[in-house]
Structures are given as C-alpha cells and as structure tokens.
Design goal:
Distance between the termini: 33 Å
Shape: globular
Strand order of the largest sheet: 1-2-3
Oligomer: single chain
Protein name: 5'-3' exonuclease alpha-helical arch N-terminal domain-containing protein
Organism: Trachymyrmex cornetzi
Strand content: 5-15%
Helix content: 40-55%
C-alpha cells in the first residue's frame, strides 16, 4: 500500500485493522513516532507490538502501546512527544528531548496543560 500523506499513520491504522481480526501484529521501524501513534490510535489496546530496530549490533527493542514507564505519561504521551521535539517540531533550543520530558514530568499540573493540546478547538 502506497502512502499518500502520512506513512506512519497509514502503518498504524493498517495494523489496527489487521489486529481487529484477532491477529497479532508487529510494526517494525526506527521512528518512535510509530509508538506514539500506536498509543493514540489504539485505545482498545489491540495486540500490536512495535519493534524498534537498532542499527548494526544494537539490539532491537519491543514495545506495546501501554508500556510507558510512568503511569502519568500514558495520558499525555502525544503532548510530551510533540512538545519535546518530534520529527516535525523542533525541541527547545539547546535542550535535549530527555531534559525537556523530565522537566515536563516534574510539572504538577501537567495533565491540565496537556488537556489543551488534545482539544479540537484549542
């Protein structure tokens, strides 16, 4: 299937359609955007895994859409990803993704701030 717009979204949506038929699906890629989209677009937690392939001798890593270390991250993962710098949005100047995410996670009202991000009319 040839992607006409967003290949990552097409990959995740296709995997969800396959998983709806009780089939286990593994998405293989290097882009963590796939995991973020999988989390956002797979609310029923179909049996879909993301295999992040590493270069050379680096071991591959396996994730599921509900594998986030911090429970508080689960509801704001797209916000954290976009705000800290995904493929299309630059991270804060001079700050890395980990530093930005750490700062955001220490924010007491993170959920309130992130809710604006998820509103269609915001």
């Amino acid at each position: 299937k040839q992607a006409t717009e967003d290949a990552d979204a097409d990959i995740v949506n296709t995997s969800i359609e396959i998983a709806k038929n009780n089939q286990t699906v593994v998405i293989v890629g290097q882009d963590i955007d796939l995991l973020v989209l999988l989390h956002q677009l797979n609310p029923k937690n179909y049996d879909i895994y993301f295999q992040k392939s590493g270069p050379g001798n680096v071991k591959d890593l396996f994730y599921t859409s509900n594998c986030f270390k911090h429970k508080s991250v689960k509801n704001v993962v797209a916000f954290l990803h976009g705000f800290s710098g995904c493929d299309t949005i630059s991270a804060f100047a001079g700050k890395g993704k980990k530093t930005t995410v750490k700062a955001l996670l220490s924010t007491k009202n993170l959920s309130t701030l992130a809710n604006v991000f998820y509103q269609k009319d915001a």
